[in-house]
Amino acid sequence: NTGNGVYLIRTGVNEHTKTYCQMSSLPGCSGGGWTLVMKIDGKKATFRYSSSLWSNKQSYNPSGGQSGFDNVETKLPIYWRASFKEICIGMKVGSALRFISLKYPANSLYSLFADGKYRATNLGRQKWKSLIPSAISSLQLKCNHEGFNGYAENVKARIGIIGNEGTDSCVSSDSYIGVGTTNTNNNRLCDFHFSLNSAGNVAGCKADNGNRDTKAMGYILVR
User: Fold this and answer.
1) Which of 105, 183, 205, 210 is 20 to 30 A distant from 79 in Cα terms?
2) Do residues 161 and 125 make contact, with C-beta atoms less than 8 angstroms apart?
């Protein structure tokens, strides 16, 4: 097999995992050679920020890793077994898939997420906003706290960007774009109430494109 499809990936001595590999370029993640590790449904609580799946070495529905960019959640042993140099983050809203990539060498995704330590990235707010269709992508103008295990007073994101209004301070932030997300204020931002959203875009309180609660399918691939 040399094209996009399911491959058998070695994850240890006499251990292998079947997963989808994207061998051709994706818009925003060029070059191919991407291995799917996680799929996260923003409508579900499975992978919200506080889920133990971010901090343990347990797989979740591994057969879901073979079906590509669909709506079936998964976490594969590659999460704690595979080192990499780059990460590809994808979001699907409706039928539209969008991707961004970042160079961040690590021993594994587990090593980036499990300890809860904040690790900064510098993609910029417009790059993160590009994961959501432009007509509905919304984020407050200040704070712009991005990276792994991002944390502010009201919101958290395992990977993504957090916004705030008024000052550059991230106190009482009320917007985010990312995966593995949660709101710690009972799903309320200023006067905007929304439902559980663990992957996608939530924004309130003078966000640049209005109040939003856009749930996405989130995808994490590495190479």
Assistant:
1) 183
2) yes
Rounded Cα distance between 81 and 17, Å, is 10
Of 180, 196, 183, 195, which Cα lies nearest the Cα of 73? Answer: 180
Strand duo 96-106 + 119-120: pairing: unpaired
pLDDT tens, residue order, the chain (223 aa):
579 999 999 888 888 999 999 999 999 999 999 999 999 999 999 999 999 999 999 999 999 999 999 999 999 999 999 999 999 999 999 999 999 999 999 999 999 999 999 999 999 999 999 999 999 999 999 999 999 999 988 889 999 999 998 766 788 888 999 999 998 766 666 666 677 899 999 998 889 999 999 999 999 999 9
Residues 37, 60: contact at Cβ < 8 Å? no
126: left (phi over 0), alpha (psi -120 to 50) or beta: alpha
Tell me how far apart the alpha carbons of residues 202 and 213 are, in angstroms, rounded to a whole number.
5
